[in-house]
Design brief:
4 strands; 19% strand; 3 helices; 119 residues
Length: 119
């Protein structure tokens, strides 16, 4: 009688492992190229900033100017909001037409002569 040796198990994971290794190698190749480009860009940018340091500080000036504009806008809007309701009335004088602008505030009418009358 001859003895039958058991058959060696076939490894089912060989193809996926090799495919994954090839995919990883390809991705690593493209990532290496991208990293080299990124490093080169940073080197050139650092050279530009070292030769012209004003490039680093320039964005601060427009930012400060924008903040000042917004603060000014808020202050003017607050003054306009607190002015009350503005009404314009055209009245006729004895010989010509005159324009009277009244500001109604807190149930009082103030004319342009700064005389306030309770309504």
């Amino acid at each position: 009688m001859t003895e039958v040796l058991p058959e060696a198990p076939k490894c089912m994971m060989t193809r996926p492992i090799l495919s994954l290794a090839m995919l990883t190698g390809t991705c690593q190749h493209f990532l290496d190229n991208a990293l080299q480009v990124a490093v080169a860009c940073i080197k050139v940018a650092s050279q530009a900033v070292s030769t012209m340091p004003s490039l680093f500080f320039f964005p601060i000036l427009p930012f400060i100017m924008t903040v000042c504009l917004i603060v000014y806008w808020v202050v003017v809007a607050g003054y306009l909001y607190s002015a009350g309701t503005i009404t314009a009335k055209i009245t006729t004088a004895s010989s010509s037409t005159a324009l009277t602008i009244s500001v109604i505030r807190y149930n009082a009418t103030c004319t342009s002569d700064l005389i306030c009358m309770q309504s």
